[in-house]
């Protein structure tokens, strides 16, 4: 066997073609169309197209609106920092897992630090991102009051910032449309009340997160508006806002106290800013044996909430999915776009969908 044959035996053809494309772009350093690159490389157009899309995805090339591909300077591997809300919060963990998988796919190094649902920890983590000189920070922390201090440290170091769910100064926002997800949750509760209780509702209890600030609190504002849109006769005093802090135990205690104070009332609607908070409310409802009097809708569609909705007769009738699995690819794409100098919208909303006990049952029947 000749040496030249051995060499060809270990060559990866598609990798060789990808390097041909990249070397062409490096040699001439001129923006080119797909057609031009195809003509210059003699590689099939389909293969060239797939190579170009991969190189754009990995950050080696940029694709402009006029259809031109251009070389992007990459002196080293890009490194992002991610400050996760808390490893003990299922939705936060879902976002982290999605982000890590997307970073691996895109060839981005990811430094993950846990904010532990604590403002001072988030500040220390921001300082660590600056010390480590990451290229971009994705911040997911709950306390809007500390957001300016975190953003100031990161901005002062000249590092771009993406804020997940909680707005931060100097940051590009990424998350759900909080008012809209709340509005749909409220409409769902009102529909349940009309179809199961003849529209007879005594109270609408909102379990918000005060420290998260007005944008996240608008989940509850939107929910109250959603109920009003279908139950316009309900008086203002029927709407009660409490601070569940997005936590199970705190929400459970709050609802326990409320149920004791309103032991004779029936037709209670509960909307929670998170499923963790909603499941705390459910615990209180069960302990007080008030399941038939209550309907609950949460946010996030964490696994435990989905499993609960499959339970016959559960008061937990729905949750709004924020599609945690889609956060990662969108965040990596957004971050690379910012680093490549692209103009990005100040607010970037993720898709959401309402998931009900009924829709879960239909899905299960269709799968069987």
Blueprint (SSEs and pairs):
Elements: H1 3-9, H2 13-28, H3 34-41, H4 45-57, E1 61-63, E2 69-71, E3 79-84, H5 90-106, E4 109-114, H6 119-132, E5 136-139, H7 147-156, E6 161-164, E7 172-175, H8 178-197, E8 203-208, H9 214-230, E9 239-243, H10 248-261, E10 268-272, H11 275-287, E11 294-299, H12 303-309, E12 316-321, H13 327-339, E13 347-349, E14 353-356, H14 357-367
Parallel strand pairs: 3-4, 3-5, 5-6, 6-7, 7-13, 8-9, 8-10, 10-11, 11-12
Antiparallel strand pairs: 1-2, 12-14
Helix pairs in contact: 2-4, 3-4, 5-13, 6-7, 8-9, 10-11
Kindly provide the name of the CATH class of the largest domain: Alpha Beta
Helix vs. strand class? alpha/beta
What is the chain-wise order of helices and strands? Answer: HHHHEEEHEHEHEEHEHEHEHEHEHEEH
Mean pLDDT across all residues, rounded?
92
What does this structure look like?
This protein has 368 residues and is of the alpha/beta class. It folds into three domains: 3-71, Winged helix-like DNA-binding domain superfamily/Winged helix DNA-binding domain (Arc Repressor Mutant, subunit A, Orthogonal Bundle), CATH 1.10.10.10; 79-175 and 325-350, 3-Layer(aba) Sandwich (Rossmann fold); 178-321, Response regulator (Rossmann fold, 3-Layer(aba) Sandwich), CATH 3.40.50.2300. 49% of the residues lie in helices and 18% in strands. The chain has helices spanning 3-9, 13-28, 34-41, 45-57, 90-106, 119-132, 147-156, 178-197, 214-230, 248-261, 275-287, 303-309, 327-339, 357-367; strands at 61-63, 69-71, 79-84, 109-114, 136-139, 161-164, 172-175, 203-208, 239-243, 268-272, 294-299, 316-321, 347-349, 353-356. The strands form three sheets. Strands 4-3-5-6-7-13 form a six-stranded parallel sheet, with helices on both faces. Helix 3 (34-41) crosses helix 4 and helix 6 packs parallel to helix 7. The longest helix has 20 residues, at 178-197. The mean pLDDT is 92.
């Amino acid at each position: 066997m000749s040496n030249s044959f051995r060499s060809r035996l270990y060559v990866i053809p598609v990798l060789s073609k990808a390097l041909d494309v990249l070397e062409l772009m490096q040699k001439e350093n001129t923006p080119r169309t797909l057609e031009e690159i195809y003509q210059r490389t003699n590689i099939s157009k389909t293969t060239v197209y797939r190579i170009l899309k991969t190189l754009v995805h990995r950050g080696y090339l940029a694709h402009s609106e006029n259809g031109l591909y251009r070389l992007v300077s990459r002196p080293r591997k890009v490194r992002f920092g991610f400050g996760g809300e808390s490893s003990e919060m299922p939705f936060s963990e879902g976002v982290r897992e999605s982000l890590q998988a997307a970073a691996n796919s895109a060839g981005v190094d990811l430094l993950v630090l846990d904010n532990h649902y604590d403002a001072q920890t988030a500040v220390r983590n921001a300082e660590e991102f600056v010390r480590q000189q990451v290229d971009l920070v994705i911040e997911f922390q709950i306390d809007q009051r500390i957001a300016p201090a975190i953003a100031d440290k990161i901005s002062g170091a000249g590092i771009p910032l993406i804020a997940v769910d909680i707005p931060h100064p100097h940051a590009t926002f990424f998350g759900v449309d909080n008012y809209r997800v709340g509005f749909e949750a409220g409409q769902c509760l009102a529909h349940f009340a009309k179809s199961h209780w003849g529209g007879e509702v005594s109270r609408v209890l909102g379990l918000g997160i005060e420290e998260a600030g007005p944008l996240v609190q608008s989940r509850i504002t939107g929910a109250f508006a959603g109920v009003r849109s279908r139950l316009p006769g309900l008086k203002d005093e029927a709407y009660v806002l409490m601070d569940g802090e997005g936590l199970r135990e705190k929400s459970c205690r709050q609802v326990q106290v409320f149920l004791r104070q309103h032991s004779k009332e029936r037709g209670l609607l509960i909307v929670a800013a998170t499923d963790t908070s909603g499941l705390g409310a459910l615990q209180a409802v069960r302990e007080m044996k008030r399941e038939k009097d209550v309907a609950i809708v949460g946010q996030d569609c964490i696994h435990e909430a989905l499993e609960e909705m499959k339970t016959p007769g559960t008061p937990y009738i729905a949750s709004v999915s924020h599609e945690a699995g889609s956060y990662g690819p969108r965040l990596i794409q957004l971050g690379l776009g910012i680093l490549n100098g692209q103009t990005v919208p100040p607010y970037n909303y993720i898709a959401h969908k309402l998931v009900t006990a009924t829709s879960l049952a239909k899905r299960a029947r269709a799968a069987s």
